Amino acid sequence: MxxxxxxxxxxxxxxxxxxxxxxxxxxxxxxxxxxLLFFVLVLxxxxxxxxxxxxxxxxxxxxxxxVIVLLASLFSAEHLFRDDLGDGSLSAQLLSVQxxxxxxxxxxxxxxxxxxxxxxxxxxxxALMLHMPGSGVPVLILSVLIGGVSLSMIxxxxxxxxxxxxxxxxxxxxxxxxLYVPVLIFAxxxxxxxxxxxxxxxxxxxxxSFALLSAALLPWAISAALKLSVENK
Amino acid sequence: xxxxxxxxDRLSAGYERPLFRDVSFSLEAQQVAHVMGGxxxxxxxxxNCLLGLFPATSGDIYWNGFELRANAFDAALYLGEQxxxxxxxxxxxxxxxxxxxxxLYLSTTANALQAASQTVRQxxxxxxxxxxxxxxxxxxxxxxxxxGQQRRVSLSKLxxxxxxxxxxxxxxxxxxxxxxxxxxxxxxxxxxxxxSVLFTSHQDVSLGMSVRTVQL
Lengths: 233, 216
What we know:
The complex is a heterodimer of chains A (233) and B (216). With 233 residues, chain A is mostly helical. Helices cover 84% and strands 0% of the residues of chain A. Chain B starts with a strand and ends with a strand. Chain B is 29% helix and 27% strand. Chain B has helices spanning 43-50, 98-108, 118-131, 147-160, 177-192; strands at residues 4-14, 18-28, 32-36, 58-63, 66-67, 76-79, 81-82, 88-89, 165-169, 196-200, 211-215.
């Protein structure tokens, strides 16, 4: 049964995990810059590679932007639990009386803040490079913020399943990419719809439901996958 | 009547081939057990099995009379899981300072100080660091410390969190002579207060008390 001291201790543990994880990210600034740099570098190659008029590039922009956001999110999640498995802190969390999901939710909240938010903030500048009309920008930011939560959760699930596997990159992509597809479809369709003059209420609500569903269910699945990975390392 | 903290009945575990077969022993209050065996005999695997971190192929494990997994692990503290011949997973974050690591530990494990104020917890951390001669490096990141100092930082968790059973994997590895004496003293004090200790070690340990041997 959950009682008041237990809720207090869970809240205190969550706060401590968020603080420690934020400090670790801040001290390894390359972890913050890597997905952002990937996003900027890959995107800047498209206008050079596709020799097309700006209208054509603008038409492709929502899809291109979202594919790169998706890949940046996938690569950034690959090492999410690797260090914790190696330094023994994951085993320590498994032995703690507090639910493992507290650690998972704290870790993913920091991941969203340090990876998804910078990507969302950088996306308008990237949209300019692809000549995307300004009317699509607010929905682009919104879709990256909302869709990014689902992407992070799905990628973390894949990372948890593959954390003890040596050649994990390919396996991680195979597990997560099919689950990314619905988010990709609705997010790029939302931006296109807004450019065409219709506010994409339906697409954004579906993206929101994906985000809420993944945030509610996947931490438990991630915790179970981490337990399995520690047992089989 | 003495309390049986841990009982192991005919435990076997391994990978493709079994590492150990039908290991049975018990650990009671005020007892110390030394798990012995050559390299690769399954000492770390045994400790992992006892804590539910590795599945046993057969046998039973009871903590305080309850079957493993039915019991929460606030009674046992596990330190220094061996990764390979050279390195140990001490549960420390290299990029965090000694003090930050211990603050994280106090906030994320069930212990008497969890509900205490920040100042009280800070004072307790400082006391423990002083006891282990680590106060001078309290604000240094763990990655800047020697492996012996890192081991001492991980040992400070023993003093911060008063658990009944200490499960220690090679606690004397990489610790200097002074540290070995200190750790032997800590184990003796813990046992005198009614605690139990289960440890693996390749070194001869002189604890000044009877130590049960579990041979793998």
